[in-house]
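Dear Dr. H.,

I hope your travels went smoothly. While you were away I took the liberty of generating a structure for the chain from your last submission, since the lab meeting agenda had it listed for discussion. I wanted you to have the full record in hand beforehand rather than looking at slides cold. The sequence, exactly as received, is reproduced here:
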Amino acid sequence: MAVAGGLDIFFLLCLGLFGQTKIPHEVATASDSQIRKPVMSDVNVTNSPDVDASVLCALVQAGNNPLCYQGQLPPSGEALTPKLLVASQNLGSLPRGSRHLADERLEVVKPDHTIALATEYRLRIHLQGPAVTGIATSQWQYLGDKRLTYHLNDSNHVQNVLTDDQGPYISVIPRALGKSELRILVMFSDGGFADRRVEFDVQPGQRQPAKLIVGTQGEPNRNAGTIAAVLNDNPDSPRVKRSQVLELSTTYPDLTGRFEIKPEFASFSVRSSKLAPVLRIEPSTGRVIPLDTGHAIVTTNFQGVTNRTCIMVGREGAMHAERPGCRDLLEDGEKIDH
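The corresponding predicted structure, in token form, is as follows:
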């Protein structure tokens, strides 16, 4: 987890990579089949998608491709299949001293509604200025109300600019629930770069994950399986202050990496070895609150997918006296997720 401080490391690397290293891309330049070819009419087209598309095409091709200015629209009522306008390319041997901030060249249209986790969102952009040579994005998530952010795993991407019947966009796959921030870095051929940020609110949506992972702060990438928690009557004990916190994430069959789930979006149920609960889960944070010695199965549910974790509660200094592994609490067909 990296707390934000100015440009993040990924963006700083991009400033170097776009200037020195060739970035893999599907198509280096737009071709006849990759460019939307609008037709002008006598209607007001000042802010139309057609003008946006042709202007962006001219910008990214440095005005050298006549196909940007000719052609025809799809038939009325027919949606335009997304087309590639520009792929991130090698900037060449641009001197480092020529790099300068040019935020005014990039306008980002902020979403006016919530967007869904792990589902493509087409973020509308408007570009002006010299030819675009590269676009990179990085996702960050807010920590409470302090407006601190941390960088989300697997969220760094070199972007292509595409267009559809609503104009130019970049494709974003939200990787965490709640309030998030997308940072966009655009590099131009004259060394200018635009660094913009846009906030969006991510909700669960309709997609069911393939897998729900319940880990801990130390190892969020894999299922914890069995966790030891300390019951201590002294609230100032260092062991109590370092109490266990469940970290939730999901995976999807067609997407890479983990998608972070805030505990407030999941539900928890506890099955204890005693009549009274031996622990509870703080629903807003996923923190394990020990109440008595014993062991319990915590079942976590998100979007209909469940995960079972065994948590053993003992007093400090006597944690390893007995480790039953919650086998006595499992019902037919159940297992602890490792």
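Two observations you may find useful: Helices lie at 9-20, 49-60, 238-241. Residues 19-53, 55-79 have pLDDT under 50 and may be disordered.

With kind regards,
E. W.
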